[in-house]
Amino acid sequence: MSTRPSLVVVGAGPRGTGFLERLAANLPELYGDRPLDVHLVDPHPPGPGRIWRTGQSPLLWMNSQAEDVTMFTDETVRLEGPVRPGPTLAEWAGIDGRTFPTRPLQGSYLRWVYERARAALPASVTVHEHRTSALRVAGPREGRQRVWLEGAAAPLPADLVVLTVGHLDAEPDREQRALADFAARHGLVHLPPDFTADTDLSALPAGEPVLVRGFGLAFVDLMVLLTEGRGGRYEGEGDDLVYVPSGREPVLHVGSRRGVPYRSKIGYALDGERPPLPRFFGTGQTDALLALGRPLDFRRDVWPLVDKELGWAHYHRLFSTHPERTALPWDDFEKAYGAAEPRGAALAALVAAAVPDPADRLDLDALDHPLDGARFASAEALQDGLRAHIAADLARRHDPAHSADAAVFAGLLSVYAQLLRLGDRLDPGGWWHGFFSYLASGPPGPRLRQLLALSRAGVVRFLGPRVTVGTDEERGLFRASSEAVPGERTEARALVEARLPDPTRELTGSPLLRALYEEGARATASGLLVVDPADGRVLERDGRPHPRRFALGPHTTARAGGAFTRPRTGGVAFGQNDVTARAALALLRDLECRLPAPLSA
C-alpha cells in the first residue's frame, strides 16, 4: 500500500476540472515539490464529463454564447491564489463570440482545459484516472479515508476527498412509479425525468401524439432531437422561418405549470450605466437574516428583499437610460423607493406614479404566471395565443429599448451570490431555482423561432398552463388537459417528462451521497449536501465540518447560479474552487510527514 499523500476527486467534469486548475495554481506556494497522488474518479471523460461529452449530437447547443463562457480566472475574481488567465470558449475555438456553440465543441474546450491543468502540475504529482463510479466514502474524522469504487477489489486510500459530482440522477417518486406501472400494463411509452441527451427516444413513433410535461430546456433538447434529429430541416430565417418535416416526427403536445417556454436569452449587450448592486439584498441584509437565530423561510424572509433588489435593478436602468418613459425625477424616486416596504402598497403606488406605461413596470408575479386567468375558446385559439406570447417575448428580449430586462438579469446573479451566504440556514427549494432559470437561463432566440415554426407546421401543439396529466384505465391511454381551454382533452399512448431528475434526500440516485447521508452528513430536504460556505467542507448532522471531506457544485448548498462563468463577472465558483484547493493543500502539507494508519477493509 502506498504511503504517498493521496487526494481523491470524485467527479471530473467542469467543476472537478476547475478544482484541478486551482490545485495546480496554488500548489507551488502551499505544497512545493512534495509527492502527491491525485485520483480522479468519473465514469465519463475528464473535462467534459457526462453533460458535455463530445459524443453527443451536434444539434444540441450550449445555452450560453461563446464569449460568455470561460474556465479561467481574471482580476475580478476574489482569490487568495494566483490569477491564471486563459481563453474564453470563443477565443479558444476562433468563433464568433455571439454564437451559441454546440455541446460537443464545449466538451472539446473542457477537455483542453483539463489537459492544460494537468500539465501545470509538477512532476512530483501523479494523476490517476479511474473511469468508474465512487460508491462510498468512509473513515475516521481524524484519519485516512477510504473510497470504494464500482468494480474495484479494494478501496482507494485518501488523505482527503473532494466531491465534485455535478448534476445527479434520482429514483422515481410515487407519481412516476404509478405512471410507469400504468404504461407497462397497457403497453404504452413513459419516459421519466432524465437528461434528454441520455434518453432513448426511439420508442416515440412517427406521426403519433406524445404528451410532454415540461417547457424548459429539457423540452428544447427533446424538440431538437425529435425534429432535426429525425431528418427535418428549416428554410428561411427570422419571422419567415419554415419547418420542412421529414415525416418521421411525432406530434409533441407540450404543457407545464406556466404553459409557456422559458424567456428568451437577451439578444443585446447591456451597455451604458449599470445598476449598482447589491443595494437592498446585500451583506447587511444577509447578516441580519443570519442573526435571526431561526430557520429561514424563503417566501417570508427572503423573497420580499429579492423582489425589491430586482426592482431596484430594473428601475435604475429605466431611469438612467430611458428617462423619457418616467414621470418623476430620479432623486425623488430613489428616496421614496428606498423608504418603501418591499412588496407593499406604497411601493406599488410609487411605481404607478413614476412609470406611466405598465409595460415598463416590473411585476415578478405576473412574469411567473403569464397565463393566469387566461381562457381560450378552443385549442386553435390557444395555439394562436401562445404563438403571439412567444413572438412578443422574442421581440422584447432582443430590443435594447427594454434594457431594464437585462438589468434584472444582472440583479438575479447578484441575488444568487447573496443566497450562498445564507448556507444551510435557507433551502430556497425548487420554485426559486425554477424561477431563476425561467427568467435568466432560457433558450437562445433562434430556438424559440424554431419552436414557432414547428407550431405553425403542426409538429408542436401547446396544451396550456397548469396542465394535469391523468390515466384512462378503460381505454389504456394517457390524457392531459388545462383549465385554460375548458372541456379540451388530449390523449396519447406516450408521455415524456421533459425535466431534470429531482434528487431529493430520499430519492437521490447517487449511492455515494446516500451513503454519506446515512453516515451522518447533513442534507437539505431538497437533497443538497450541506457544506461550510467558508471552504466547502461537508457538514455533519452535529454541525461540525468534516476535516477531510469537501464538496463543490450544484449538489451542495454552495451551488452558484449558471452552468459556466462569464468573463470579468467575479466568478463565484472560481473563488470557491480556490478556497477549497488552498484548504486541501494546506491540510495535505501538514499531513505529509505523518505515516497513514493501516487501512481495514
Automatic annotation (TrEMBL):
Identify one Pfam family in the record: NAD_binding_9
- Protein known as: Adenylate cyclase
Residue stretches making up the FAD-dependent urate hydroxylase HpyO/Asp monooxygenase CreE-like FAD/NAD(P)-binding domain: 8-167
Chain positions covered by the region annotation Disordered: 543-564
InterPro entries the record matches: HpyO/CreE_NAD-binding, L-asp_N-monooxygenase_NS-form
User: What is the native source organism of this protein?
Assistant: Streptomyces cinereoruber
From which domain of life does this come? Answer: Bacteria
